[in-house]
# Entry
Amino acid sequence: MTNLELFSDQPLTPLHFEQQAQARGFSAIAGIDEAGRGPLAGPVVAAAVILPQEFELKGLTDSKKLSEKKREELFPLIRKQAAAYGIGLATAQEIDQINVLQATLLAMQRALKKMRGKADYLLIDGITPLPVDLPQQTLKKGDSRSLSIAAASVLAKVARDRIMLALDRQYPGYGFAGHKGYGTLAHRQAIAARGPVLPHRLTFGGVKEHLELT
# Structure
């Protein structure tokens, strides 16, 4: 196997996968990513972003590699420069009903439907394709390999963090503003002491053990 074959699936430019799709005749390539699969509380949020062909935004990468301040700075810039974008979510109740993977796919489909422009090709972070009738490609660690997916990851993360800040005001005492619903020690202790509330995922370990407190 040659070195070229070894690394043939690695991006040559930040828009490598988008350009590959364009070379095949597609013109509206949407990057899709989610935020919030792992937390004990709150929705899973997904975003879909179609970038213009000439796109450059300094500092844009996987949202997990960015500070909260940088994500907040990029959020309006991505929305302004994107050819189209959409943000969708699936609630904690839907996660409990259909499991977090299916809820993630549902949130992604909702994000696609909320875009003003229609995608003709999808680049999806992860390994699970969407059950939609569109050509698509899944990419492991896609948020570090595709600018479209990176842009979607930032929109999804910021949108979800803002939801968790609102839930913190609605349900004080759980610390949602700080841990954003993730299973920190302080969050687990609050659930054990107070019992779960509406934003909690009742089928998740760390929550379901304390349902008798509700």
